[in-house]
Amino acid sequence: MSEHAERTGSRYYDELVEEVRRHGEERLGLMTSWAWYDDPRRLAFTLSRYKFVAKMIEGVDRALEVGCGDGFGSRVVAQAVNNLTAIDFDEDFIASARATASDRHSVTFHVHDILRQPVEGRFDAVYSMDVLEHIPVSKEDQFVTNAIAPLHAQGICIIGTPSLESQAYASKYSKLGHVNCKAQPVLKALLARYFHNVFAFSMNDEVVHTGFSHMSHYNLVLACGKKTG
Questions:
Q1: pLDDT per residue over 135-158, tens digit each?
Q2: Number of CB atoms found within 10 A of residue 6's CB
Q3: pLDDT at 205
Q4: C-beta atoms surrounding 184 within 10 Å
Q5: What is the C-alpha end-to-end distance of the chain, expressed in Å?
Q6: How many domains does one find in the chain?
Q7: Does residue 6 belong to any structural domain of this protein?
Q8: Is residue 4 pLDDT above 70, yes or no?
């Protein structure tokens, strides 16, 4: 490297460092802090799921995230859409999301129980990552109905959830809350009750693919063309 290039690179690095010092070092939210402490690789998988969502709905005007947790992945989607609203029923999670939010990638966080009622307004895309598995089967239709109620007729819905097959390898903490994991065909059938077009994807670690669903650790289903009546 030439002396000029080295000096230029050094100045650029110094500018980045100064910007971080002015802004402050980033903080992780409640559950993300636990993941970073317990199993750092999990963050790579989480970010990959949100990147998939971001690419699928890139360019939409208004998007809604149902069950955002501490908002760690929301920022990835916020980069790709004009406006992102993220909700969770847990007040501690929303407080954490607001405390660690970015002024550069804006997200509007609200406390809201989707099982009680839909979110007000209209949205071009609705997505929910790692939530359905926590919803009892008896309430899953209520969950989906309320989640997609504000979705435009031609809007996009994406749901991601651990596969039924993955539960043989789940941690004890995961198993405590996972009451509704599904095989991919069953998850696809659930969304087909509400949408004309449903597309299923498999995920192993951070890789999204269309391989044999029974070997999928995580399932992502994209649906569009909302049914009416």
A1: 999 999 999 999 999 999 999 999
A2: 10
A3: 95
A4: 22
A5: 66
A6: 1
A7: no
A8: no
- Gyration radius from the chain CA atoms: 19
Residue 132 to residue 187: CA distance in whole angstroms:
10
The residue-averaged pLDDT of 30-48 equals: 94
Cα dist from 62 to 69, 73, 108, whole Å: 19, 17, 11
pLDDT in tens, 168-214: 988 887 778 899 999 999 999 999 999 999 999 999 999 999 999 99
Q: Which residues constitute the domain of residue 137?
A: 31-226
pTM across the whole model: 0.91
Residues 6+ away with beta carbon under 8 Å from 223? 156, 157, 158, 159, 191, 192, 194, 195, 197, 198, 199
Structural domain includes residue 93: yes
Which residues share a beta bridge with 151? 123
- Domain membership of residue 7 (yes or no) is no
Positive or negative CA dihedral for 145, 188, 127, 194?
negative
Give the bridge partners for 202, in sequence order.
209, 219
CA-closest candidate to residue 131, choices 198, 177, 81, 63: 177
Strand pairing report for 151-162 and 218-226: antiparallel
